[in-house]
Each structure stands twice: as structure tokens, then as C-alpha cells.
Amino acid sequence: MSYNHNDSYYPPPPPPANYAQQGSYAPQGSYNPQGGYPPPPQQQAYPQNGGFYGSDYNQAPPQQSYEPPSTQYPPPPPQDYGSSGGDFKGAKHYNREPKFRDLWAALLFLLQFALFVVIAALFIKSLPSTAFKHSNNKHSTKDFFSLPTMIMWLCVLLVSIVFSIVYLGLMQMFAGKMLVISFWFAVVSMIGTGIYYLAAKIWFAGGIMLIFGIFYALMWFSWRHRIPFSKLVLEVVCHITRKFPSTIAISVGFLLIQALYSAFWSLAFAGSFKHMQQYQSCSTHTDRNGRQYESCSNVRQILAWVFMVFSFYWTSSVILNVLHTTICGTFATFYFFEGAPQGYPTKHPTLSSLKRAMTNSFGSICFGSLVVAIIQTVRAIVRAIRSQGDGNIVLQLLACCADCILGCIEAIVEFFNKYAYVEIAMYGKSFVPAAKDTWTLIKDRGVDALINDCLIGNVLQMGAFLCAAVVALVAWLYITITRPEYNITGSYTAPIIIAAFVLAMSMFMVLLKCIDSGAATTFVCLAEDPDAMARNNPRLFAMVRETYPQVVRGVHAVDRF
Question: What pTM was computed for the model?
Fold first, then answer.
């Protein structure tokens, strides 16, 4: 089978033969049509003191800088390469015949989305007819769904995009400094919040935040050794992002899709209140004191809300995971094919990865997103029960415990899904095999150590908070200056600021998905095939080999399949 430049999953170029006996990673072997590529050298456990990656593991590494190999790579593999147990350690695991995986999940998602569109159309029709009418006097708007308010949300979107792009540039220019600043920013935020709570006489919350802030500050002495590794990973990810600016462009595109969907869902949810009133049933009851009271219930409205919440979680998760899988595919293409003389197997790696994510792997993405959406929906129901406890301490306690347990399960599932989608992007696997292989990868290869020692998440969290704060300030200034009639009493000010804060934080994380997805792909590719990193990024490979020798042994040392 020949390479397909659009649809196939691309195998990485074969590892150079006999590179372990040389000072560089230049290939020496040649391709043999009958016998395949020469087998890679038998890898051995690396010493704890991090010897040089050569024939003598006890020698000190040479001081000269790494020079790119001048020797040409072997020619591309023939059509039957890897089909009969070839020697390349990872070729047989790469899917060069993409198939539609987990098709049932994709069909179920499309059916759910079609049902949501029908219901949303009915709900939006129930909105007031004056909801979107604009008056020449911007101060005379009496309805929340007015043109000035829509302009405010547009400003929120634009400011979030501009801030996120500027912050991404700062990360690329000042990677190390941003890591240090983000750590102490978290410390100052926790201590400042604790002091505020104490000043407001919220003693318990203030004490907890102060204790966490102090302990977090003390963790600096054990965490500062992680900064060089995190800095190097961040520099590598930012370098690939600059090489493929399409990853940023596609993030902006998916942000707009998510924003449009969220706006459409919000309008439908607002219209559901009026539309579902016709199904409300009320009855009169008499209490023990002989007083009558009216009790109303609306089962259909509750069911409609549960479905809409579930649909929102599932659809939003699918949108974000399609973006995540697309970026992972782009980074994996760079990881395995950078420096190969034949170049990349496709002219537009990001578009090819997007096509695979939207077709062959779409069912697997829907499957993984469905699991998370179910957990999130159950959590939303538990929280609603908790808020309607009506002073029942036992019920609130049980709901609180259930919410905590579900939150832990959700975090664990999202963690594994994040790396399972990398396997899906690279190999085109179904969701369940990808999840199992992710567990094996993390458990046996020590990838969890790299993930725990990487502090890139701190930089992203700081950026998300700063972006949300700036956007919330913009929303407050806009609503204060325009002074719409529906907010004469100021009752809408706090909800608008909170909504702008949450939306801006979400948009920031979507736009910088390229950094988070790139780091995840780097870890998985490193554990899958460390030889590729030894070729295209020897600095990062040397640091990982020195600190995490169990990772660079590669998963080919264990038969996982």
C-alpha cells in the first residue's frame, strides 16, 4: 500500500541502524527489499547517573554540540512494509488503512444533536418578539436580549482572543520567567483570598486558604528543580506552534464554533422557561394547620432541562476533543517526520489531522466525550438537589459527598481521555483500546512522572485567570457606561461580570489548547518512540534520559498489543 497524503495514519520514518555505536544519529543501514530495514539495536537499561547514549554507557558525554546528520535517511518503505512483521518497532502499530471507529457513538451523537436543534428551535420561538429589536437610543433597551448587550458579548469575545494571542507570544519569549511568575502568582492569589475572607469574617474559608497558600509557597523548594524541564518542554511546544501557525488558527476557528453554539444554547435555555409553562400542573393542598397552599410541578420541563444540560456537555466536549485530537495529530507528524529527506507525508498536516478527526476518529471522540458528559450531567443533577435541600442537613451532606466523588471520577476520566486521544490521533484506534493502552503507557513507562513534573499547567491557569479578570473588567465598564434600562437597579451587573469571567476563562483555555495538547503529545510520543526525539530534539532527549531513564526505554520493550 502506498502512502495516502490525505487520509492515512502516517508511520514514523524508520530509526537509523547502528546509531548506538556512533556519536551522532546518522543512519548507516540501507533498505533491503527482501528483509526490510535492519533491526534496531537492542536497547538496555540506562544507568542512574545518565551515561552517554553510545556504546560505552560509563563514558562522559562529549562536549561538542549536536549536529544534524548529513547522511540521507533510507527510502520510504515499500507497499508491504510492516504487513508481514517488519523489523521497524512501531510500524505494525500504525494504521495505514483508516477505518471508521466507534461508528455507533458518532451516529448517536448526531441523533442527539438533531433532537437538540429541533427542541431549541421551539424554545427560541417562545422568546419575546421584542427581544432583538434595537432602539436608536441605547439607554432605552428594556430587554436583556438587545443589540447593545450583544455588542458587549462581542467585545468579550474579541478581548479574550487578543489577550490569549498576546499571552501566547509572552510564553514563547519568556518561557522560564513565566513558569516562575505563575508559581508565585498562585501563592499570592491563595494568600490574598485568605486575607480577604478573614477581613470579611469568613474565618473557616480564610484559614483554609491561608494554610494552602503557605504550604504551596513551601513547595517551591521541592518544585524549583522542575523548572528547567518544564521550560524546555514549553520551548519545544512553542517552537512547533510557530512552525505550524495553523494550530493557532484552527483554535480560533473552534473557539468561534464553541461561542456560537453556546450562544444558541443559551437562547434556547432562556426560551424554555416560557415554552414549558404550558405543561405545568398545579394542585391545592391543606397543611396540618388547615391552611391551603398551591404546589406546582412540571415533569416535562425538568426532563427538557436534563436533556439540554446533557446535550451541552456532550457537544461542548466533542468540539474541544476534536480540536485536541487535531492538534495532537499535527504534533505527532512533526515528531516522527521532522528532518526526514522526503519531508512530511502530507502538505498540510493540520488539515489532514482535522479530516481524520472529523471522519475516521469522530466516533471514538464522541465515545470518550459521552462518558464525561454523563458524569457531568449527574453532577449537575446532584448540585441541583443540593441547592434545593430546604435545610435538610442529611440530604445536603449526602449530595455534597456524591458531588465530591463524582468530581474525582470526572477528573480521572478526563485525565485518561486527554492522553487516549493522542493514541487515537496517532494510530486511529477505537476509544476502548486507546484508553487501555494509555493506562499501560502511564503505568509501565513512568509517563506520570513527566506529567507531574511539568509545570506548564500553572502558566496556563495564570493566563486564564488574568484573561478572565481583564474581560470581566471590560464587561463592567461597558454595562456601566451604556446603562441599559433592564439594569437600572444594578441587578444584572453581578451576573454579567460572573458570566464574562467564566466565558473568558473558557475561551482562553480553548485558544491555548495548542500548548496543552502539544505537551501531552510530546510525552506520549517520547514514551512510544524515544529514538525519534533523539534525532529531532537531542536536548530534551538528554534531559529526559538523565532524569527519567525508564521513559526513554520506550514501549517497544514491552509487548502491549
Answer: 0.73
